[in-house]
Amino acid sequence: MIPPEPVKTNKERGLIFTWSITFLVLFPLLILLGFLMRIGQAEMKKLFLSDFYSLMTLHGLGMTALMFSFAFAIIWYLISSRYARLNIRIGYVVYFTVLIALAGLTIGILVGKFGAGWFLLYPLPFKSGTWLSWSTGVSIISLIIVGIAWLIGMLHLLYYLSKEFGGFGNLLGWQYLRRKEVKKELPPMVLVATISLVPAILAFIIGAVMLLMYLLQFLQPSLKFDPLLLQNITLFFGHTFVSVTLFCGVAWIYEILPEFTGREWKTDKVLIYFWNATFVVILIAWFQNLYMDFADPVSRQFSGQIINFLSAIPASIITIYGVIVQFYHSKIKWSFIPLMFLYGIAGWAIAGFAATVESTISVYKVLHNTMFVPGHLHTNMLMGVTLFIFGFLFYLFFENGKQHPGKLAKAGFWLFVAAGYGFVLMFFLEGISGIPRRYARYTGMGIKSMHDIAVHTAQIAVFFIIVLSLGLLMMYYSLFSNLLKKNLLKVFKTKAGIA
Ligand code: HEM
Asked: Does residue 222 share a domain with residue 105?
């Protein structure tokens, strides 16, 4: 591994700190939208239906876009500061374009009340019952812009990496499968990042084509497309997008965890086989969403079931095994950062288990479209990816984990984890009780006992959101106070003429 060179990585550090601050500002704002939705479902405050669906759309699209953008920015930083110097200008172009697109989306949703949900399932965006029709156009254009920005960033990164490692096949680790000696070692992070980003590129290209079709219909309303085709594209895009965000997080764990355990995480044939299998799995895992589509061929539904069981295996088995090997009898310096990674992996495993159970056909018939689905989604993103991200943030803000964040941050972390699981548990309990997802309020359900369960669990969820936000606040305090301290120290040293 090439160690980072502090002087030359100043520009990269500037970009990643810019991204980090942006993430830290937007993340709680998007949580606030989720909080408001839960308040509405708990009947603590009356929300207009149109407001609920606008909030859900902005929360869903905003969270997924923000988390992917920041996960990609972290991969960009680690690769550019360690393995292949990337063009910093392109990095900033991606940053500002994503910001402009998010601003456009916010205007479309908050001002125009666009509320077709984060999946924009066709033809819903064009059935503007509660939103102004221009908001559909603004939201579609914003999504096309953000997609193009990501595509540029990912293609640039993969191009430079493949130049550095002698070809695209080498990024997938195929040189390890030949009998020849491997000249340049492939860091596991580069392998996992490639395996994640290539399916993302395919998904984004197909997603961009879909959005262009949407745009055409927006400009020429007499146009009509096949809803089944567009639904399948949406499912492919949405499923791949969320999986890739998670795998980007896994990628930086392969890179950073060994710095704490002092044990190398080597690339070998087994790792290559498992991650190449994951490559295929990422591309086909969305088949598990097709059980309920009787318009799809039956073979697709059966293959969806088999793929569902297989998809849980390669990435999780090899990573969990690798993590155990990293920790087992190692001389790890236990600190906050490996702890966060460990809990993030646990969140991923729990969400994966819940998703596998849920997508078993006989169970799916009962749980589909219940709150169980947001349950596994939020376990994955909040108790998995969010912990990976905060682990990285503490690594970055505390000198590559060499400084200790202190007791307040640790207490905040435990509060966040405990309350986070309380929050997602309410989704799961609601799901098991048959409470439907995406309901603004439960007054119209017609079954009093179900209404009462839904409202009470939502009220408990509101309590957990407040506690987890308190935990977050404590972690924020620790991050920002350290950042300010470091900056003040730098100003003081510059004034005093100390290098
Ligand atoms: C404490 C933090 C969070 C809170 C309070 C929260 C709250 C909520 C609520 C109440 C819903 C509506 C569920 C329904 O009635 O169907 C929802 C949906 C959603 N949330 Fe969150 N959420 C949080 C974190 C996240 C994170 C980190 C992500 C990351 C991707 C996320 C992504 C989504 C998505 C995509 C949906 C739409 C799901 C659907 O279409 O059914 N949320 N959230």
From this structure: yes
- CB-based pocket (< 6 A), ligand 1: 31, 34-35, 37-38, 56, 59-60, 63-64, 67, 117-118, 374, 378, 381-382, 386, 423, 437-439, 465, 468
The length of the chain is 499
Query: Could you identify the atom of ligand 1 that is nearest to the CA of residue 34?
Result: 7
Last residue of a domain, one of 230, 261, 292: 261
| CA–centroid distance, residue 59 to ligand 1 (Å) | 7
| 296 within domain boundaries | no
Closest alpha carbon to 386 in 80, 97, 74: 74
Mean pLDDT of 430-442: 95
SS3 category, 237 = helix
Q: Token pair of 482, please? A: 């350290």
Q: 381 C-alpha to center of ligand 1: Å?
A: 9
Rg of the chain taking only CA atoms, in angstroms: 23
**CB neighbours (10 Å) of residue 103?**
11
Count structural domains, the chain: 2
Q: What pLDDT is recorded for position 8? A: 60
Q: Which atom number of ligand 1 is nearest to the Cα of residue 385? A: 27
How confident is the model at residue 248, as a pLDDT?
Answer: 96
8 A C-beta contact, residue 462 and residue 39: yes
Q: What is the mean pLDDT of the segment spanning 459-485?
A: 96
> Which amino acid would we find at residue 110?
L
Residues 254 and 375 grouped into a single domain: no
pLDDT digits (tens, 9 = 90+) for 320-363: 989 998 888 888 877 889 999 999 999 999 999 998 888 888 89
pLDDT of 55 strictly over 50? yes
Q: What is the pTM assigned to this prediction?
A: 0.94
Q: Are 247 and 370 members of one domain?
A: no
Counting atoms of ligand 1 from 1, which one is nearest the CA of 61? 35
Residue 293 has pLDDT above 50, yes or no: yes
Q: What is the 3-state secondary structure (H, E, C) of 160-207?
A: HHHHHCCCHHHHCCHHHHCCCCCCCCCCHHHHHHHHHHHHHHHHHHHH
